[in-house]
Amino acid sequence: MKSTKKDLPKSQIELTITITQEEYEPHLKKAAEKISQKIKIKGFRKGHVPYDIVEKEAGEMAILQEALETIVQKSYVEAIKEHKLEVIGSPQIAVEKVAPKNDVVYKATVALLPEVTLADPKKISVKKEVKKITKKDADETLDALRGMQAEEIIKDGAAEGTDKLVLDMEMTQDNVVVEGGSSKDYQVYLSEDHYIPGFNEEVAGLKKGDEKKFNLTFPKKHYQKQLAGKTIDFAVKVKGVYERKLPELNDDFAKKLGQDSVEKLVALVAENMQKEEEKKAEQKREIAILDALIEKSTFADLPEVLIDSEKEKIFHELQRDLQKNGVSIDQYLQDIKKTEDDLRKGFAEQAEKRAKAALISRLVAKENNIAISEEDITKEIELMKKSYEHNKEAQENLTRPEVRDSIAIMIQNKRVMEFLKGQTKEDQKEDKKKESTKESK
Fold first, then answer.
1. CA 54 – CA 57 distance, rounded (Å)
2. Which of 59, 205, 237, 296 is 20 to 30 Å from 86 at the Cα level?
3. Among residues of the chain, what percentage have pLDDT more than 90?
4. How confident is the model at residue 412 (pLDDT cuts 50, 70, 90)?
5. Is the pTM of this model over 0.70?
6. Domain co-membership, 25 together with 94
7. CA 271 to CA 259: how far, in whole Å?
8. Per-residue CA distances from 108 to 96, 129, 146, 253, 308 (Å)
């Protein structure tokens, strides 16, 4: 393998890396094995097809393309070590030459670690505010649990109280049905808050066969950006009203949920809710600590590749969130009337902040000897594998070098945050309180 280095502005360098056929040959064999698991070849079991047969059926170029990712990953790491570079973030790869029985040539633009003057964490004070769970909060959760086991009885009268309605609904804007705005057999529970404020109030009092038209304004932070803050027209037709009889909150109900008595169930619900509030408060505090460090620290010019890498991560996170709600990224872009480039440009401020947080984490780890061992990474991977015990592909992905690197960063970030929380003024006060309590005992 040969590599050359070229300095670029803003703490960046460009590596030109060349890998000979002899050097990448082992990767071709592994790539052929992967391809043989995906295609069906008469006379051979999947995953047990000789290399020459796979080459004949799939072609040399297909095998090389399959192997390209691992070829690049391995050679890039070797080039970084060869030039003794301290890099951060993922590189931008541009393949220059890839053809069977020829050298593979590509360029990797990578960010060097920019200079950071870290603020003193001991001068940062962050207050942790935990919401106290009230009886009302616990009662609402218990009512929701009861509602999950409610008996539903058809009624002829108007919907009221805790009733459920089943209705057909159509949402329009300027007489045009909005995307996803037509629903059949839509269920509405009057006792639960609707995601569109005022909806329950509009349908309360309706009975089977009733039709009604009304308009409502969507919340400004609604996930469907094309509807956020917009006033939408609704047309509903009630197909049924159901009276919901909730089970009594007694020992029999508690036993169905694995508790001996209603007292224990109430206590458990309140305890779990309080733990959740503790967790939320801790997460807010961690974000506040990082925000304060970013604000008070100074940074040299951040490499563009580092910012772009964070933009890409944000984009993929958004894509995953949209998919969970059944919305494709193409549909989302169409709805908000933007391109992918527009979207990425809008991520600039958030990406810069995340990049600075990554730099701080790395510097804190370096200055305070917070090291992650191979054993730490392996233990974490073994735990993660248990979550994917029936997904062979996911388990294999966990062994990939770049995944191990991501896991190492994740573990490091957790330990750095624990260290920083121990350095803030608020934590020191809490620790002193604990120590004084112990001494008084």
1. 5
2. 296
3. 57
4. very high
5. no
6. yes
7. 14
8. 10, 45, 58, 62, 14
52 shares its domain with 109:
yes
- Measured distance CA(359)–CA(351) in Å, rounded: 12
In a domain, 172, yes or no: yes
Contact 202, 216 (CB under 8 A): yes
Q: From the centroid of its chain, how far is CA 381?
A: 18
How much is the average pLDDT of 313-333?
A: 85
197-211 confidence digits (pLDDT tens): 999 999 999 999 999
Residue 129 lies in a domain: no
Question: What's the CA gap between 270 and 275, in Å, rounded?
Answer: 9
pLDDT exceeds cutoff 90 at 415 = yes
**Residues 249, 189: contact at Cβ < 8 Å?**
no
Collapsed DSSP state (helix, strand, coil) of residue 192: coil
Confidence (pLDDT) at 401: 78
Task: Judge if 86 and 165 occupy the same domain.
Answer: no
Instruction: Taking each helix axis as running N to C, give the angle between helix 401-423 and helix 425-440, from 0 to 180 degrees, rounded to the nearest 10.
Output: 60
Backbone angles phi, psi at 403, to 5 degrees: -70, -40
Q: Where are the alpha helices (DSSP H) in 39-169?
A: 51-58, 60-82, 135-147
Residue whose C-alpha is closest to residue 286's, from 415, 102, 133: 415
Q: Which of 211, 216, 184, 185 is nearest to 200 (CA)?
A: 216
- Pairing label, strands 231-245, 298-299: unpaired
Structure tokens at 213: 């038209």
Give the helix/strand (H/E) hosting 253.
Answer: helix 251-256
- Is residue 425 assigned to a domain? yes
Calculate ∠ Cα 219-220-221, nearest 5°: 90
101 and 15 share one domain: yes
**Tens digit of pLDDT for each residue in 110-139?**
888 888 999 999 999 988 889 999 999 999
CA distance 407 to 168: 47
Which whole number is the average pLDDT over 308-318?
A: 89
Tally of CB atoms within 10 A around 410: 12
What range defines the domain where residue 394 resides?
A: 368-441
* 109 & 171 share domain: no
